[in-house]
Amino acid sequence: MTKTGMQQEFNLGQNLRQYYGKFLKNRYRASELRVLSGADNRTVASALIALAALFPPQQDQIWTRDLLWIPIPVQAEPIIDE
């Protein structure tokens, strides 16, 4: 994925947060959101980058000051690629 592609995915996550923010909680909860992706690396990476912008870590979720990111699981489904 190119730097431009990564930036576009991050911007997508920010735009989704801005547009759907009133429907989303500020923190990611596995019981409330399941993320599916195609099985190829590019689509998994795209989902991870968009999620980083959509759900930035809240104060108590920050595990290192060097990286303001929390891991959010993405389930890769080969059937999506068909």
Automatic annotation (TrEMBL):
Pfam families: His_Phos_2
Protein's UniProt name: Uncharacterized protein
SUPFAM superfamilies referenced in this protein's UniProt entry, alphabetically: Phosphoglycerate mutase-like
GO molecular function, one term: phosphatase activity
InterPro entries, A to Z: His_Pase_clade-2, His_PPase_superfam
